[in-house]
Design brief:
- This protein is globular.
- It has 6 helices and 15 strands.
- The strands form 2 sheets. A 10-stranded antiparallel β-barrel has the order 2-3-7-8-10-11-12-13-14-15. A two-stranded antiparallel sheet has the order 1-9.
- It has 2 domains: 334 residues, Lipocalin (Beta Barrel); 34 residues, no CATH class.
Amino acid sequence: MTLDLKTIAAVLMMAGGMCSFGEKTYAQLGFLNPVLPRDSVYIKNYPAGITGRALFQRKYTGFSIPGRQPDASFRYASNKRLLLGAGFVYKFFNLNISIGLPYLNQDLKARGKTRSLDLQTYIFGRKWMFDVYGQFYGGFHIKQKYFVPGWEPYYFRDDIRLRLIGGTAYYIFNPQKFSFRMALLQDEWQQKSSGTFMLNFGAFYGLAFSNTMQQLIPDTLAGQYGNASVNRFRFAGFGPGLGYAYNLVIKKHFLLSGSFSTNIMASFTREQSASGYRDVFHFRPGMAFMASAGYHSDNWNFSAAWINNSIYYKGYSSEGNYAMSAGLYRFTVAKRFNNGRVSRKVLRLIDKAAERNILQEIFRPDSTNAVRQ
């Protein structure tokens, strides 16, 4: 049986949390349940509560092909659809469902249609956070208006595809006093300012190509690009990195949150054209950041966030760097509810899973039984 990138990514997402089609879904695994005690002066959590969420978000992804001049990069982008969604968080389980409403996206018709399967999960451990993703897009336009002669206002390619799978593991040095979950899941309340350094390790694999084997750069602009004959390129990389995150709390209820991390990637790029292919091995950076602001209390949470990931890789026939970026803008309204009699029956399986440490049961069954006794 042959497995393609979509199948592999979907299996990984199901194994690592919840997934959704066209949306990002944040989840936490039972065997990575964060049992590390929190400092109650800094963080208030709600172990028995349910956090319901309504959200508006606009997602984006794209890649750029370097030109002979620094300002002449050919920048392909997907449509930034506005999505309306709802979801809930309970213990380690989190589910979001979002849909794009046609009347909210009328302005995108001039840019062409993008088709996508976008998977992502955040997994929280005791001192770790994992960001795992899989992106599969078809149909891209050029971000610059009137950039390609004969196309007004946007140059659009229905045949261009993008495939990307990867992830980053973050080791958090100060998990007792710093909460990532507050900005990402809204199920904790950071009540006092705190920050943390992070070590991370990231890895990715992807490709961009024309499914009709046409070159990615149009003929009318071929003279501006040393890689104009390329119709497909693959890229992969891995490497360690360092980051820092900080939650600034103002008068206990208002929060400004930000994080930034960078990696030094050992990377590989293969440029392919009708005449063959060329490979390049190199070191290039990868960067990720998150910025969030909002109001938080025992019952309500209102927040706006911007999340972005960027990676860079070198081509054989170009002086600049290929670049890829993906992210989202999100506004969230969250409400916490008590777990009543009806909801306890519905969520019984989650309660049972939360009580177990699956990894410890597999690798150290004796110690698990001793704890239960």
